[in-house]
Amino acid sequence: MALTLYKILFFLYFLGTMGLSFSLQAKVPPKNKEPMNYDTCTSKGCHSNLKQKKYTHNPIEANGCNLCHNPIMGKHKFEFTSPPQEMCIVCHDSLDKSKFKKVGNSMVIEEESQSFSTHRISLKDFPPHIKRKILSWGLTLYDQDLTCLTCHNPHSSDKPRLIRPLKNQEDFEKPLCVTCHEEKTKTQNHPLKEDTCFQCHNFHQGMIQTPLLRIAKNRRDPICLQCHKEKTSIFNTKHDYFLWTDERKKEVSGFFDYPTPTTIRCELCHTIHHTKAQGSFLLTSKVSQEPHKVIALCTSCHHNEKAKSIPQIKYIFKHVPILFSSIPDPKTRKEITLKFFSTTGKRMRGTEEPFEFSCATCHNPHAWGKDYMRSFFLTNSTETMKFCSSCHGKEAKTLYSTFHDHKPKEPHE
Description:
Blueprint: H1 2-17, E1 55-56, H2 58-61, E2 69-72, E3 77-80, H3 84-89, E4 100-103, E5 106-110, E6 115-118, H4 128-136, H5 148-151, E7 156-157, H6 173-181, H7 224-227, H8 246-252, H9 293-302, E8 326-328, E9 335-337, H10 359-362, H11 381-392, H12 396-401
Antiparallel strand pairs: 1-7, 2-3, 4-5, 5-6, 8-9
């Protein structure tokens, strides 16, 4: 018995040397008294967990608890220095409600140098079934409405932007957005660095007249061009939707399911949501039955008798699939590679499947001029000729220049 008691005492002593302490009673927090030392709030036990999460609010990092809390003397209790929404906009003044205004169906923040789109933030703006679902997540309301603290933790969080965790949800952003926009995520398979809607959209400061798209670093272009910088070559070309006449916009609107109004150039041909096209995220044609997504998109305008203002091709000729995608340049030995896409619109690279020719094999729909032939968005014709001549020899030039003059049933190998 004595030996057992000795072992227990030794074990407790060992734990104590490891920095662990035991107490039969819970630690009593200190009562507030002047002068208040806010440096100890997060450093001496009571709220030390606030600095242990991945993201910490700057005032907490600086031990500035008094910026938001007034102590109640004689107790270990605190009250807000002002209502939560007012308290946040002392620093985040761009979100002051006085700067909000409604333009059409959109909420807009007016700043001195720029205007931004912003999401509706009041619970009163949501339909009853959405309101019920939001409330089921256990989020906190203030005066029966959503405020900054409903979605953000003012101290710290393991989520970017100090996002709060949701009740029974691993993530916040997707459930928050999908509640209203469920149809937007059914076919979306864009490769994102983070699995979150906020990688492309900004809840508070989106690009004006867009679906809250984030703005690229140059403060002019949408976030798409932050990754796809090379696609800026479409600007000021005949594929630049913003240069089209109203007549042409109206004409083409019957060919695709692109959004109206179209707020960025990319939306004329691409969509991240509502697409079954892999890789290129192409819009679905309303008029073409062509199974190849790339060909269907291009020929909806360029082989369509209803497209009276758009240049037309004579025939949609299909080259037979080939078993190689590149050849060495006869002189330089540098690899010449053309672009091939599967019928679903996915770029084909290093596959054992036969390579499919499409409009994008010879045309670059984003570039006109400089480095390209100055007509029809054609890619480098010299390299294309070398590629074609590996099979067709001297006949390649004639076949290339008359490609769209061949009827589909004509052999063309």
